[in-house]
Amino acid sequence: MKQWNADRRWRLALGLALVTACGGESPADGGPGADGGVPIDAAPADDGGTPGGDDGGAPDGGPSADAGACESGHHPCDDACVPDDDPATCGSACTPCPAPENAVATCEDGTCGHACAEGFHDCDGECVPETRSCGVPLPSEACDGDGDCGAAGECLDGVCACAAGHRPCVAGCCPVTHGTTTLTDVDGRGVQLEYGPDGTAYVLVQAEIGPISERTWELHLYTRAPGAATLERAEFTVPVSYDEHTFDFAIRSDGTLFAAVAPATGESTAVNLHEWRPSMTEPVTESMGRGFGYNIGVGLTIDDDDTVWASWSTARSGGLSAYSLASDGVRRSYSHSVFGTVAQTDVEWDPATDTVHSFWGHRYTGDFRSGVVLLDGTPALESPCPADDAAFDSAGHQWSIYNSYSSIQTYFCRDGTVRQARRVTVRGTLPTAFGGPLVVDGEDTAYVAFYEADAYTVHWVASRDVETWSRGELPIRYGLPDGSTSPAPAHVDSAVDPSGRVSFVVLPSDATMGPLTLVDFE
Predict the structure, then answer these.
(1) Distance between CA atoms of 418 and 154, rounded to whole angstroms?
(2) Which of 33, 173, 210, 426 has the lowest tally of Cβ within 10 angstroms?
(3) 9's torsion region: left (phi>0), alpha (psi -120 to 50) or beta?
């Protein structure tokens, strides 16, 4: 579950300007209306006209009682004449003008606009700090050299891609700047990141506790409040067994956290749902059902109606179980027949069609076989992609990443269009096989993050069309565990904040390799 369910577009604010008075005098009191507009029918009439005229007109240029006309530079709104350049009543529809953050609304010739505040300038409809440059269009034609790709592009294999230090965006290529938040001494072997509707970042870690001889495992939660510079430990703690558990979580619109937890392997083992709010000292736990498989997995998402959806593999002969918890407390369980022993991969809500899908796969016949089950809504996906991790953009396009274990290769997919990872237009070398996470930002750009163990670095690849990809490196470098001569893995996840920007979390599997780091695109 890699997208928050509220609107992921840029936040809008209304910049309300003072309404200036109309130029004509009110026949009633000799001055303009109290609200800055002049009532259209303000002129008195004794015989269907106005003194000084016999045609119902207003010889002094004031509004006409018969025609309801306004003087030059004004237009009628709610029985009053208002200035044409009033952003509160702009145009013939008399509607307020919106404005992005760090701007005030404007109205000119009946058309809405905005003016950026001091210290900000306009970039692709946003008001961003003057220190940040704007996006640059990226040519779509074939290229022979970097000079064919504009100021922010480079030519790779005859195709223009965003140059280092830039990311794909609506404008073409936008500069990348980072902010980081770190937390030391966190030791774990799994991490996930989500955002709440208020912009709070939630990081859920599968933590290792104690020395090896006495080691136990727990899920720990860390949060970063909006605008804060630190991660803080929350009261949420869930004990798990020695077996590596899989988990997925999401935040409901009221700030309630729901986490689905299952063992990685097992037969007829409990799959639990944990519910927690900041006011609680410990989560409330309930069993959603039983699971079975070599990779039971579990996926969870929350739809626009605040219904929690979870799904997992459940039977030796094949099958998925699904569970929903409605916001009014109604609970329902579902069973779906799937051929062969399956591994749950992901559960996602599509905001464009208001549908919920459970993606599954299995790799025990020498081939990657996968499918998708519709949990809620209609219709089902017309062209589903195989998925180790999936996401939907605002237009309902399905993005996914998956590995074919018969050929040990990674593939990207968008609405049935498949692109092999080793052929992706990027600089440098991709690992032969890597998993997600996959996330789609507020501009419908898809990102996949991965680490390079031998280089101790973390990277992302991004695309808006699955055909052209760009690649960047996060400002993180981790090292070897103490006493080791070989690298250990780093765990990576990503999420989108309420403004539509992407964040990444990186957790080295040994605390001596480096701190837990939250990286934000700015």
Answers:
(1) 24
(2) 210
(3) beta
CA distance 199 to 7: 13
- 192 touches 258 (CB < 8 A): no
Asked if residues 389 and 401 have their Cβ atoms less than 8 Å apart, the reply is: yes
Of the CA atoms within 13 Å of residue 310, those in its CB half-sphere come to 32
Q: How many CB atoms lie within 10 A of CB 409?
A: 17
Sequential DSSP letters for 62-125 = ---TTT----TTEEEETTEEEETT-TTSBTTTTBPPEEETTEEEEEETTEEEEEEPTTEEEETT
* DSSP for residue 283: -
Task: Answer whether 354's CB lies under 8 Å from 303's CB.
Answer: yes
User: What pLDDT was estimated at residue 67?
Assistant: 36
Residues 6+ apart with CB under 8 A from 451: 457, 458, 459, 489, 490, 492, 506
d(C-alpha 5, C-alpha 92), whole Å:
34
What pTM did the predictor assign? 0.78
- Determine how many CB atoms are found less than 10 A away from the CB of residue 362: 22
Residue-wise burial string across 416-438, b where 16 or more C-beta atoms lie within 10 A, e elsewhere: eeebebeebbbeeebeeebbbbb
Task: Name, in order, each residue with C-beta under 8 angstroms of 444's C-beta and a sequence gap of 6 or more.
Answer: 393, 394, 395, 397, 464
How far is C-alpha 510 from the chain's CA centre? 29
Is the CB of residue 388 less than 8 Å from the CB of residue 403?
yes
Q: Give the pLDDT band (50/70/90) at residue 467.
A: confident
Task: Tell which residue, 291, 286, 360, 267, has the closest CA to residue 324.
Answer: 286
- For the chain, give the number of residues: 522
CA distances from 494 to 117, 377, 421, 521 (A): 31, 27, 19, 11
Which residue carries 């990226």 as its tokens?
138
pLDDT tens per residue across span 133-165: 688 888 888 899 999 998 899 998 888 999 989
Task: Report how many helices (DSSP H) and strands (DSSP E) the chain contains, helices first.
Answer: 0, 40
Judge whether 300 and 249 are in contact, CB under 8 Å: yes
* Contact in structure between 353 and 369 (CB atoms under 8 Å): no
What are the pLDDT digits (tens) for 299-346? 999 999 999 999 998 866 678 899 999 988 999 999 888 777 777 889
Distance CA 153, CA 102 (A): 29
Q: Are 222 and 205 in contact (CB under 8 A)?
A: yes
